[in-house]
Amino acid sequence: GNSVTQMEGPVTLSEEAFLTINCTYTATGYPSLFWYVQYPGEGLQLLLKATKADDKGSNKGFEATYRKETTSFHLEKGSVQVSDSAVYFCALSVGGFSNTGKLIFGQGTTLQVKP
Amino acid sequence: NAGVTQTPKFQVLKTGQSMTLQCAQDMNHNSMYWYRQDPGMGLRLIYYSASEGTTDKGEVPNGYNVSRLNKREFSLRLESAAPSQTSVYFCASIADVSSYNEQFFGPGTRLTVL
Predict the structure, then answer these.
(1) Which of A42, A104, A107 sits opposite B40 (nearest CB)?
(2) How do strand A11-14 and strand A109-114 relate by DSSP bridges?
(3) Which of A7, A84, B38, B65 is most buried, with most CB under 10 Å away?
(4) pLDDT tens sequence across A54-102
(5) B10 touches chain A (CB under 8 A)
(6) Which pLDDT belongs to residue B66?
């Protein structure tokens, strides 16, 4: 079946540190991959996406590359800020004729950035 | 343009009580979804509606029913609440499933069942 696995959290970093949150997936067909972010007390917001192999999604200094050979979509940022503290979810959507837009989420990784 | 709205924001129920969670979107989206969020488990799909007039079960549908009242509204009903349904519930919508556009989420309903 389809599934997403994220690295365990919480991740605690100092401001301006480099961030990597690992995400690997299992999917039939050719999934699209997403990173969503949830700030405290809010719903999820799309951070970035990639719809085919080797695509790089980027937004607000965050990047992730769709690696089909390693079935991965790791999230990176060169210099985190306190305002990046949130929960990050990796997700996939499997397309094709049966596509219904359903998202399959990883368990989420909490990031805490200290000043 | 309010996006996706959910009511109520918080609710406490006793075991066996019933309630309906309301969701509405003003973006003219075709598809709508209900997820639950539990610690360490991410979000899991309860039910979805690919288009007005259709609904289908997701990963964890037991104990829930849904109604796609019209294109804007998609409600989730708990007929007899159980403590295992204590969770945060999110409604989401998407304009067009074929183009992998952004799925928009509401702010959530935090439900506690005692």
Answers:
(1) A107
(2) parallel
(3) A84
(4) 999 999 999 999 999 999 999 999 999 999 999 999 999 876 545 677 8
(5) no
(6) 97
Contacts of A45 (CB under 8 A, 6+ apart): A36, A37, A38, A39, B105
Nearest Cα of chain A lies from the Cα of B48 at a distance, in angstroms, of: 8
pLDDT at A114 over 80: yes
Contact A105 B43 (CB under 8 A): yes
Contact A103 B45 (CB under 8 A): yes
* Ramachandran quadrant class, A69 (left: phi over 0; alpha: psi -120 to 50; beta: rest): alpha
* pLDDT tens readout for residues B52-109: 889 999 999 999 999 998 999 999 999 999 999 999 999 999 887 666 667 899 999 9
